[in-house]
Amino acid sequence: MANRLFISSVQKEFSEERRAVKAFILGDPLLSRFFTEVFLFEDTPASDRQPDNIYLEKVGKCDIYLALFGNEYGWKNPDGKSPTELEFDHATNTSRERLIFVKGEDDKARDAEMAKLIRKAGTQLTRRRFADTPALLREVYASLVDYLERNGMLQTLPFDDSPCPGATLKDIDNAAIEDFIETAESKGRLTLKGSRAPKAVLQNFKLIRNDKPTNAAILLFGKDPRRFFNNIQVHCLHFFGTEKRKPIASQQPYEGRIFAVIDQAVEFVLGKIDSPVGTRAKSTQAPADFEVPRSVITEAVVNAVAHRDYRSNGFVQVIVYADRIEVWNPGELPHGLTPEKLRSPHPPMPRNPLLAEPLYRVKFVEKAGTGTTDMISDCQAAGLPEPTFEQNGAHFVTTIWRDWLTDAVMDKIGLNERQKKAVTFVKTIGKISNPEYQKLTACTKKTATRDLTGLKERALRQVGIRGPGVHYVLRSKKDIMGT
Q1: Does 158 reside within a domain?
Q2: Separation in Å, CA 186 to CA 48, 67, 180, 365
Q3: First-to-final CA distance of the chain
Q4: Dihedral over alpha carbons 197, 198, 201, 206 (to 10 degrees)
Q5: Which of 131, 183, 345, 414 has the most neighbouring CB atoms within 10 Å?
Q6: What mean pLDDT value characterizes the chain?
Q7: Is the peptide bond before 348 cis (omega within 30 degrees of 0)?
């Protein structure tokens, strides 16, 4: 099958790199079988060039849009957009496969418009970095091979279905399989009619290939998965503030069988967030209702572990901040699924189906594609903002908000910069007094009193009536809006 590829960039900045990419693709024994047309604008005869028509028409007809982003933004049209950004937008709007390669590791030397374009691209898909032409060609090769595999043009086994190199059935923990069977049966999602022998169970779940355990088998039931994988760690971190900066309050890496790692990561988060003691009106034991529902945290962690790209050298990060919980997952959403589509019912598209099936059996995941919509509804029921989903470079990021006072909400209810700063302080410390407000915002007592009075109506609750013990804490959304 022939594929057409369009190379976009600021032409003067990347003239040599563009030529090198085209020559590499057309000269490579594998890639040249699938990519027969590589378009460079400068190859068009000058007499035929009508820039606005030619490059956008070619973008709309290509199978893959490949962009090189560097320091320069380039010439701008009357609307203030460069041809490179117009090409990117057209590729996006016409649903072209997009591959973005960014030169350099930071934005210090970039035009402001180019830095903004790179950030825009990063919210939609993975951006690969390169330092020189050989590195660029390596990244281009890996990306194009991945494209061919995803579209069925190159037949290779998925990661979870591939035999684990060097592993044998002796590396499987039979007791772990027995525990799995017992748990799955107790959840009502497994009825074994045949043999309960460990090998038979693995075969039943398609976790053996050529009499060898697959990668999924080792991740689920291996005695020591770390022997075979150096990237299976789930790294949990806790910061007292709202930014990722030292000192780190606590951190803990978890690695091992997937079931245990999920439980450990969820418990780490629950141990860092508030758990007010509930009422005993319906039970002799007081329930623990966490500020963020356990179901939401579990779903985010399970999604990251089950659907991550295990061919990536990255690992999952679960980060607890004063105002939110972020879960970073190496990889991208499956083709055809976008962050926006996660907010409405959608078909299940597991990246690693052989991992997802056992997780479904023990009720870690569902098969209906309702996980993210359940997260949204559970957060709404708890009076919290909806979670956010976005692509950030090579990671997919889920953000769970710990309180309703997000930056957008504070803008909407009209808080000034001093008041926003105070709310962030309370999220971190737990409370604020009038003297602390004065010191934090460098304002007078009169201004602090006026600001705090305004906050009492919209965001904070006063504790105490008079005296040095008076302070202010966050109010819940239900306190403010009655919902």
Answers
A1: no
A2: 71, 52, 10, 16
A3: 56
A4: -140
A5: 183
A6: 86
A7: no
| Residues 238 and 220 reside in one and the same domain | no
Q: What is the DSSP string of 145-198?
A: HHHHHHTTSS----TTTSBPTT--GGGB-HHHHHHHHHHHHHTT-----S--SH
406: burial class by Cβ within 10 Å (0-12, 13-18, 19+)?
middle
Q: Evaluate whether residue 360 is within a structural domain.
A: yes
- List beta partners, residue 319: 237, 326
Alpha-carbon span 411 to 405, nearest angstrom: 10
Q: Which tokens belong to 37?
A: 């047309």
382-439, pLDDT tens digit by residue? 878 889 999 888 899 999 998 778 787 888 889 999 999 999 898 878 899 999 999 9
Of 115, 150, 185, the residue that ends a domain is: 150
79 — phi, psi (to 5°)? -85, 0
Residue 177, pLDDT > 90, answer yes
* CA 385/CA 406 separation, integer angstroms: 8
Is 157 part of any domain?
no
Candidates 191, 1, 20, 214; CA nearest to 9 is 20
Q: How much is the pTM?
A: 0.64
DSSP string, 21-36: HHHHHHHSTTHHHHEE
Containing structural domain, residue 126: 3-150
Residues forming beta bridges with residue 227, ordered by sequence position: none
Strands 208-209 and 212-213: antiparallel
Angle among Cα 193, 198, 201 to the nearest 5 degrees reads 45
